[in-house]
Specification:
The complex is a heterodimer of chains A (200) and B (712). By secondary structure, chain A is of the alpha+beta class. Chain A has one domain: Sortase (Sortase, Chain: A), CATH 2.40.260. Chain A has two helices and nine strands. In chain A, strands 1-2-3-4-8-9-6-5 form an eight-stranded mixed beta barrel. In chain A, strand 1 and strand 2 form a beta hairpin. The mean pLDDT of chain A is 84. Chain B has three domains: 50 residues, no CATH class; 280 residues, Immunoglobulin-like (Sandwich), CATH 2.60.40; 173 residues, Rossmann fold (3-Layer(aba) Sandwich). In chain B, the strands form six sheets. In chain B, strands 3, 4, 6, 7, 9, 12, 14, 15, 16, 33 and 34 form an eleven-stranded mixed beta sheet that branches. In chain B, strands 20, 21, 22, 23, 24, 25 and 26 form a seven-stranded mixed beta sheet that branches. Chain B is globular and about 85 Å long. The chains are: A alpha+beta (200), B alpha+beta (712). At the A-B interface, helix 1, helix 2, strand 6, strand 7 and strand 8 of A face helix 1, strand 35 and helix 12 of B.
Chain lengths: 200, 712
């Protein structure tokens, strides 16, 4: 009897442990997605401050990033606030603008990165010739047309960012549905600037 | 015992057993057992076709003309007839002229091949001259203003011409497409580039790429574009090639046995006496001329190009710093390069100057992850090199600043323990307010008898650059600021400029594995400054332009190089400085004895980069643009506002040539900037995995619950 009680106690402990681990992991995992969504709402306010002319409006006081652009697309429907700097920390809240690349409106290529399972999940459904709109913090909207979609190997390849092109390059991890993070492949969408000015 | 028990239990509850197995599977997942391979795998290796293996542009290890194959991204190397190389080394710059001859080996009429010329450039090199002769056509690289170059490029593109196919697969791979090449036609390519000589472990190194790779061997076939694998009758492998009828025999039957013959000559003017010159892979003949230069050639006239040529020269041991001047007259101006070379051996008896070192470490949120680990590693490494005569302090900052001590404290065991503990506890969080931290470091009293060094470790994500430079300008005094850039995308420009304002140096560390190596070098340097406060007496020089404008301190193991331009140079100039606290001076002769090439190019590059820095300061963009354009066009340089464009300068086009129209203009290297993908952050979260693992754990818990009930 005592054996069976020992067994059942062990089982209870194991069960409690599994429950705790389960809740913790599900909670933490969901928090990533929740944060990705919620932050975008908070960012909207900082973005309107940016449009009002405030330089580097921090969305919350301890933030070390600020909105630099707004990325929109109709099919699939996308509306994202882009943050300055492409670091693990900023990417949790929104797509990040690679500091060494051009800002929208500047000469040169704009590079944005985002998580393949949160903000940049839509890249999977982006089609060739799809239309993207990027609004800079000065309020002008630039229009782009998708001209290239390819998978690149981050260990070997590089994105060309010639100053005489005004392309928009969106980078995310590939494959989209891989369970483990950290693979070497990247999905790179290149869009070319189309000349039509803001007509929205 | 428990197992027995469990076994009997299992027999009693068979249905539960099946569930348990399932549960155990999930449990193993939850406990971090390796997941089945995800599809993050590398793309499969391409198939080899033919007997000469095709290759990707990435595999090129020397200047190669490649023909496209029907496989995208795969090429067949063209037979190379010969290569002539001349390299002139002046001080720390090397100017290389490469001349290569290739052929289209096909004799079949209509076998026009499309070629891509690829040349792997050394890291610091840039091509400024190019000339291609393809049969009768001559194509030359011209420097044009960017907008104009783009117009030429766009026009050719609109007209359906094959414009420059620039496939920059990795940085520093010079690539240009060489239109259609007729059967049996020869292609001659002349290329000039300038690079900076590498200095490492107290020796100078120069490398010319001519390494082993899949290459042309007479008597072996070539794969021709659009026709798949083809074989030659000579090769025994041909029976494996089904399509033997379309054999393409090689042009050059093997005669003397020399494969890809290469001749190489080199003139070396190191600017200081040498202990020895050596070439580890090729036997060389080196002759010394009267003014300290060396004429070097390969012992054999033409050697097979099957390994990189490398030249290493060691400075002769010296205990005093020495200065050398090279001059070049060009277009009515005098260009000079002044090199101040540190002694090779530091005088052991010379007392080590005590130092005050203040480390400033960034622990803001952007440093989270590998960056903060690198920074902590750097800091610990630096602490271990301090001696008891030194004083130190650590300041850490995010949106708030904290410091270990209020002023630098002497190195004691207790202080060290405190410092190490302090370092270990650093975590990255919060904003980046670099200026208060720097202000705090600059508060410590100045002391002329000590070396006061500030070492700033950050990823340089700073908003207010102007304020930072202003602060440095006003408060740096006799202190020196060294910046260490950490992480995937540090703001290198800011950090380099900050170090320049603080008369220190900038070190970039992109990889955790590099931390130790790079910092050892830096700290070794910091311990042994040879000369401080160096100035050059420029009285009586008309129209002098000097880059860099302020001279940094001279450290062991690294020469200082100044680029000068003036209407005329005086015969002598005086260099002044300080050794420790004693005054030092050296008279330098500017006698234009022998002319050296490449100095004007070097000067122009320095000027362009100085002008570029002006734009960051927000000065009048248009004026700077004009100034840069002026320099770049005069000196034939690729810059942010100019491009190298290939222009067809064929005097008369042959009328019967189908490819004659093929390529009037090809756009060459459009000053490619590249962002390495590897430097971008990871763009996937572990959220999915975590939820999955969590769900697995929860499911197992449920299963255990039912199992327990079944048992009870």
């Amino acid at each position: 009897m005592s054996r069976s009680r020992l067994g059942s106690r062990l089982l209870t402990i194991l069960m409690a442990g599994l429950l705790a681990i389960g809740c913790w992991q599900v909670g933490e995992g969901s928090w990533i997605y929740a944060k990705a969504r919620l932050a975008q709402f908070l960012l909207q306010r900082a973005w309107s401050r940016a449009l009002a002319g405030e330089a580097m409006p921090k969305p919350w006081p301890w933030a070390d990033t600020w909105p630099v652009a707004r990325l929109r697309m109709q099919h699939p429907s996308v509306d994202l606030i882009v943050l300055a700097g492409a670091y693990g920390r900023t990417l949790a809240f929104g797509p990040g603008h690679v500091t060494s690349s051009a800002l929208p409106g500047q000469e040169g290529t704009v590079i944005l990165t985002g998580h393949r399972d949160t903000h940049f999940r839509f890249l999977k459904n982006v089609k060739l010739n799809g239309h993207l709109a990027l609004t800079g913090s000065d309020g002008t909207t630039l229009h782009y047309r998708v001209i290239e979609q390819r998978v690149m190997d981050s260990r070997r390849e590089a994105i060309s960012t010639g100053q005489d092109t005004e392309d928009l390059v969106l980078v995310t991890c590939f494959p989209f549905d891989a369970i483990q993070a950290g693979g070497p492949l990247r999905y790179v969408v290149r869009a070319e600037r189309t000349m039509d000015r803001d007509h929205s | 015992m428990l197992t027995d028990r469990l076994c009997s239990l299992r027999q009693r509850a068979r249905t539960s057993a099946a569930r348990l197995t399932l549960g155990a599977f999930f449990l193993s997942l939850a406990l971090g057992a390796p997941l089945p391979a995800t599809s993050c795998a590398e793309p499969g290796e391409s198939l080899h076709t033919g007997i000469i293996p095709t290759m990707g542009l990435n595999e090129v290890t020397e200047g190669t003309l490649m023909f496209r194959t029907d496989q995208a991204g795969r090429y067949t190397p063209a037979p190379i007839l010969k290569t002539d190389v001349h390299i002139a080394v002046t001080g720390t710059i090397a100017r290389a002229t490469v001349r290569q001859e290739f052929t289209n080996p096909s004799r079949k009429k209509g076998d026009w091949l499309e070629g891509v010329y690829v040349f792997p450039l050394p890291e610091t090199a840039a091509v400024d001259h190019l000339r291609m002769k393809i049969g009768e056509r001559i194509i030359e690289g011209r420097i044009k203003e960017r907008a104009e170059a783009k117009k030429v490029y766009d026009q050719a593109k609109r007209e359906g011409k094959r414009t420059g196919l620039i496939e920059q697969e990795r940085p520093n791979l010079f690539t240009t497409s060489v239109a259609n090449i007729g059967p049996g036609e020869h292609v001659t390519i002349e290329l000039e580039y300038q690079e900076t000589v590498r200095y490492e472990n107290e020796q100078f190194q120069l490398r010319f790429p001519m390494a082993v790779g899949p290459r042309y061997i007479p008597g072996v076939p070539v794969v021709v574009e659009g026709q798949g694998p083809q074989g030659s009758g000579i090769s025994p492998d041909t029976d494996r090639v089904p399509d033997a009828s379309r054999i393409t025999p090689p042009v050059h039957p093997s005669g003397d046995g020399a494969i890809n013959p290469l001749s190489l000559s080199l003139s070396l003017n190191p600017g200081f006496p040498l202990a020895k010159v050596e070439s580890p892979f090729h036997p060389i003949i080196s002759l010394q001329d009267q003014d300290g230069g060396y004429q070097i050639s390969l012992r054999e006239d033409a050697v097979p190009a099957d390994r990189d040529f490398q030249l290493i020269w060691h400075p002769a041991p010296r205990t005093e710093p020495m200065a050398t001047v090279f001059t070049e007259q060009k277009d009515g101006a005098t260009y000079a390069m002044l090199m101040l070379v540190p002694p090779t051996q530091h005088r052991e008896k010379a007392a080590r100057v005590p130092r005050d070192i203040t480390f400033i470490i960034d622990r803001s949120g952007s440093m989270a992850g590998a960056s903060i680990e690198q920074a902590k590693g750097s800091l610990t490494a630096a602490l271990s090199r301090l001696t008891t005569q030194d004083r130190f302090n650590i300041i850490q900052f995010n949106h708030a600043i904290r410091s270990l001590f209020s002023t630098p404290q002497p190195v004691t065991t207790k202080a060290m323990q405190q410092a190490i503990r302090y370092t270990e506890q650093l975590t990255a969080d919060g904003g980046t307010e670099i200026i208060p931290a720097l202000r705090q470091a600059l508060k410590s009293p100045q002391d002329g008898s000590r070396l006061q060094q500030i070492i700033l470790i950050t990823d340089g994500q700073v908003g207010n650059e102007e304020e930072l430079f202003e602060l440095l300008h006003q408060r740096i005094g006799s202190r020196r600021l060294f910046t260490i850039g950490i992480g995937s995308t540090p703001n290198s420009h800011l950090m380099r400029k900050a170090a320049e304002s603080g008369r220190g140096a900038f070190t970039y560390i992109g990889n955790v594995n590099e931390v130790k190596e790079k910092l050892d070098g830096l700290f070794k340097k910091l311990e042994h400054p040879v000369l401080n406060n160096i100035t050059i007496d420029a009285a009586g020089w008309s129209g002098l332009e000097q880059f860099p404008s302020t001279i940094t301190d001279l450290y062991e193991g690294e020469p200082i190089v100044l680029a000068l331009k003036a209407d005329s140079l005086p015969s002598r100039a005086l260099l002044q400085g300080q050794v420790g606290s004693a005054a030092w001076s050296l008279s330098v002769s500017f006698n234009p004895s022998t002319a050296h090439g490449g100095l004007s190019v070097y000067w122009a590059r320095q000027k362009i980069s100085a002008l570029m820095d002006e734009t960051y300061k927000g000065n009048a963009q248009e004026a700077i643009r004009k100034a840069i354009l002026d320099v770049a066009l005069t000196h034939h340089l690729v810059s942010p506002y100019t491009s190298l464009v290939a222009v067809d300068i064929t005097p008369a086009r042959p009328t019967d040539s189908p490819a004659g129209e093929g390529d009037q203009t090809t756009n060459l290297a459009r000053a490619q900037n590249l962002t390495a993908l590897a430097n971008l952050p990871r763009t996937a979260t572990g959220g999915q995995l975590q939820i999955l693992l969590g769900a697995a754990a929860l499911t197992s818990a449920c299963l255990l619950w039912t199992f327990r009930r079944a048992v009870a």
